[in-house]
């Protein structure tokens, strides 16, 4: 069965500190993973996809198949990074769908 | 201005009533999805449709129904059989695999 685990419900850091939001997955196929972000009073939006290996707003995430992880990292957190972050796995086959983790609420303190 | 529009933004329902949440997109996307978002639960998939006139149950379909008569529309009906309908409902769509979903702004349903 496919599953996405985000072990931290809440994460609090100070401005300028490094931040890492953890994501682990369970999937028998070849995973495609995403990070979505939801800022206060805004709609859920795509932050980045592992397949494009991009860096958005200073965030990066590397897929580690050995550890089945896709942790989101940023070297210097900013107050505007405060938001809800969701890791998601795209399943394969005829019925493709995104499976989400329960989310991590990041608070960046001044 | 392309995007997904969900209406209404807030909806109140009496116990025993059915209500229908609207989701419309003008992005020409083939696939559409309904998720339910509860605090501490993340997003859980209710129903999805990858093509007009076809849809599949997600993980928590009981008490819900959908239709997909037009490409741009994917309404969700919350029936009286849904035991705990109070939640935030999100609609999403995508054009092809791997590029990510576009989400609507959501409908907050409250049972009174």
Poorly predicted ranges of chain A: none
The largest pleated sheet of chain B is described as: 7 strands, mixed
What is the helix fraction of residues of chain A, given as a range? under 10%
Please summarize the sheet with the most strands of chain A: 6 strands, mixed
Strand content of chain A: 35-45%
Global shape of chain B: globular
N-C termini distance of chain A? 41 Å
What's the overall average pLDDT of chain B, rounded? 92
Which spans of chain B of ≥5 residues are poorly predicted at pLDDT below 50? none
- Mean pLDDT across every amino acid position of chain A: 92
Strand content of chain B: over 45%
Order of helices and strands of chain B: EEEEEEEEEEE
Q: How many DSSP helices of chain B?
A: 0
* Rg calc of chain B: 13 Å
The counted number of beta strands of chain B is 11
Greatest contact between two chains: A-B, 22 and 24 residues
Structure classification of chain B: mainly beta
Number of strands of chain A: 11
* Helical content of chain B (DSSP H or I, runs of 4+): under 10%
List keywords for this structure.
heterodimer; A: 110 residues; mainly beta; 6-stranded mixed β-sheet; 3-stranded antiparallel β-sheet; 0% helix; globular; B: 112 residues; 7-stranded mixed β-sheet; 4-stranded antiparallel β-sheet; 11 strands; 52% strand
Task: Please provide a written account of the structure.
The complex is a heterodimer of chains A (110) and B (112). Chain A is built from no helices and 11 strands. Chain A has 110 residues and is mainly beta. In chain A, strands 2, 5, 6, 9, 10 and 11 form a 6-stranded mixed sheet that branches. A 3-stranded antiparallel sheet of chain A has the order 3-8-7, with no helix packed on it. Chain A is globular. In chain B, strands 2, 4, 5, 6, 9, 10 and 11 form a 7-stranded mixed sheet that branches. Chain B has a 4-stranded antiparallel sheet with strand order 1-3-8-7, with no helix packed on it. In chain B, 0% of the residues lie in helices and 52% in strands. Chain B is globular. The model of chain B has no long low-confidence stretch (mean pLDDT 92). Chain B has strands at 4-7, 10-13, 19-25, 31-38, 42-51, 54-57, 64-66, 76-78, 87-94, 102-103, 107-111. The chains are: A mainly beta (110), B mainly beta (112). At the A-B interface, β5, β6 and β10 of A face β4 and β5 of B.
């Amino acid at each position: 069965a496919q599953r996405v685990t985000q072990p931290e419900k809440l994460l609090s850091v100070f401005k300028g500190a490094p931040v890492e939001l953890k994501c682990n997955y369970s999937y028998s196929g070849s995973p495609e993973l995403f990070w979505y972000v939801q800022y206060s009073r805004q709609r859920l939006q795509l932050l980045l996809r592992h397949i494009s290996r991009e860096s958005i707003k200073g965030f990066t995430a590397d897929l580690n198949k050995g550890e089945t992880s896709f942790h989101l990292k940023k070297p210097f957190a900013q107050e505007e990074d405060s938001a809800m972050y969701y890791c998601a796995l795209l399943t394969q086959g005829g019925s493709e769908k995104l499976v989400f983790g329960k989310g991590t609420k990041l608070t960046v303190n001044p | 201005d392309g995007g997904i529009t969900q209406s209404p933004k807030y909806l109140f329902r009496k116990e025993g009533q059915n209500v229908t949440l609207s989701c419309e997109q003008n992005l020409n996307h083939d696939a559409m999805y309904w998720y339910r978002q509860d605090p501490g639960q993340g997003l859980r998939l209710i129903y999805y449709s990858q093509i007009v006139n076809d849809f599949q149950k997600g993980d928590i379909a009981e008490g819900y129904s959908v239709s997909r008569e037009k490409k741009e529309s994917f309404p969700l009906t919350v029936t009286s059989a849904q035991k705990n309908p109070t939640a935030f409902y999100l609609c999403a769509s995508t054009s092809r695999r791997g590029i990510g979903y576009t989400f609507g702004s959501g409908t907050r349903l409250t049972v009174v």
